[in-house]
Write a structure and sequence with these properties.
This is Photosynthetic complex assembly protein. It comes from Palleronia abyssalis. This protein has helices spanning about 5-20, 25-45, 95-110, 145-150, and strands at about 60-70, 75-80, 85-90, 115-120, 125-130, 135-140, 160-165. It is of the alpha+beta class. It folds into two domains: about 5-45; about 60-160, no CATH class. Strands 1, 2, 3, 4, 5, 6 and 7 form a seven-stranded antiparallel β-sheet that branches. The protein is elongated and about 80 Å long.
């Protein structure tokens, strides 16, 4: 049998076409146009001092609680400044996840120890956890009502809640 090279030639031609058409030119142009449009919009918003959108409106603090949050990615404990244990659970769920984010912010800001945080219930129903040591805060209701409900335990009849605005 003679090797005519026909199979090899057909395969080579197929590969040349495939390599040429891997990403269509129109798609590359469209992606570039989209990137330049996004850059143009961001520049326009910055230059014209356009006000921020999608930012929740400010609301008065209805109730707040200050405590030390200890978490190890699974368990979570909240201890009031007077030593009262507000929450101690082996499965901290969303509280432990937020505790991990808080711990990461403290590492980034080189905060030693475990200073207290403040959980605030606002007049519009939002819950906000803030860390005065780093300036970090999290809108807990943004993660859904089910996750925010985990934090409602800290506003129970335990001593130390403050009523009224701050």
């Amino acid at each position: 049998m003679r090797n005519t090279g026909l199979y090899y030639d057909a395969e080579r031609r197929e590969m040349q076409e495939r390599d040429r058409e891997m990403i269509p030119r129109k798609l590359l142009v469209a992606m570039g146009a989209m990137a330049l449009s996004a850059l143009g919009l961001a520049t326009w918003a910055s230059v014209t001092d356009r006000p921020l959108s999608g930012v929740p409106e400010a609301a008065a603090v209805v109730e707040s609680r200050t405590f030390v949050l200890e978490s190890d990615s699974i368990a979570a404990t909240a201890i009031a400044p007077d030593g009262t244990i507000l929450l101690d659970t082996d499965n901290g769920a969303f509280i432990a996840v937020v505790g991990d984010a808080l711990n990461r912010q403290r590492v980034v800001h080189r905060i030693s120890g475990n200073p207290p945080v403040t959980l605030a219930r606002l007049a519009n129903g939002r819950l906000v956890l803030s860390d005065p040591a780093t300036g970090w805060s999290a809108e807990l209701t943004s993660f859904g009502a089910g996750n925010a409900r985990h934090w409602e335990v800290l506003f129970g009849d335990a001593p130390g809640s403050s009523q009224g605005g701050e």
